[in-house]
Amino acid sequence: MGYREHATFLLRREGERDARGRPSASWEPVEVCGVTVRWLKPDEAPQDRPDGVEAKACVALPKGAPVTAANLAHARLALTDRGMDPTDPDAALRVTHVLGPSAASPTAWDTLVYVGRFDG
Question: Which of 50, 52, 63, 112 is the most exposed place for a label (fewest CB within 10 A)?
Fold first, then answer.
């Protein structure tokens, strides 16, 4: 794992429906301090690719983080300490998988979030 850093999760919120009944999306930023980021080797990434997104990194969340596995569905992640814009969901990494939390974790982190990019 890398050093502890700040990241911003963009949680998807369903908005008003358009004329065809499709909901619009808005994004709620939630800052999380103390995450660690580890870039994955190709053989370490989960093999399935939800929504065509291949996991490229594993982010460990500290215990007590203000996000949960349940609200990370369809979320985005901006690594703000690395210069990513926390207000741009299109440029952010996409959450592909969430593992945890694990109550038995002996470390300061208890949830793993896999993220990647959709590159067509």
Answer: 52
